[in-house]
Amino acid sequence: MFSRLRSDIQCILERDPAARTRWEVLTCYPGLHALVLHRRAHWCWSHGFKWLGRFISHISRWLTGIEIHPGAQIAGCVFIDHGMGVVIGETAEIGAGCTIYHGVTLGGTSLYKGTKRHPTLGKNVVVGAGAQVLGGFTVGDGARIGSNAVVVKPVPPGATAVGNPARIIQPGADLKREEAASQMGFSAYGVTQSDDPLSQALRGLIDNASGQEHQISLLWQAIEKLSSPAAAPHRDCVPKDAALQENFEADRLNQLVGK
Fold first, then answer.
1. pTM above the 0.85 mark?
2. What does the alpha-carbon distance between residue 70 and residue 90 come to, in Å, rounded to a whole number?
3. What is residue 125's three-state secondary structure?
């Protein structure tokens, strides 16, 4: 019991830069308190003491603001950050190393008892604040659920789900960058630079405008050559305000939209 508690405290110290000491984590982190109480409730539930398990779960909800059904299966090194408003259903399963932020719901869409109604999270999954994961499907290892996403279908390992309804974004060109970031920590709130569809669209428009600026500059340079002394009859065809050099600051605009 104490070894598992130590590992839970250590995982919080590793993932939360605001955590300073073990004593602070032990006394001031409701996510840790909820998990400790859940293990007692789950033991009672799985040994036939159903009412006692539900009662411990109810007390835990009152103390921490985190509602975990005693039937849920939660592995070690799970970090529930802030935690207020988190709801985890009866048949939910959470793998080791997962991070869950406030306002998350691991809920069900079926009313039939005895069925797998709630999602299964693989190892090292990050679920952003306010996300709703609804149904008895699996979220693969290392996947990320963006803040406020509504996920109603399986998420492949390593992919990211964003939006409502959630769209699946497969690992792209910045995979190496994300791997380097994961060595230093993890993607807080399940958000990466390539997640936001609006930012992706804006970056595409910026890149396209930059390409058009380049092409226009090349055209003016070609016209200027035609206006050289060797082509005197066409010398006046280049306007004085023609942009012979590119002035489009694509890099600066890309930084503004988060590239």
1. no
2. 7
3. coil
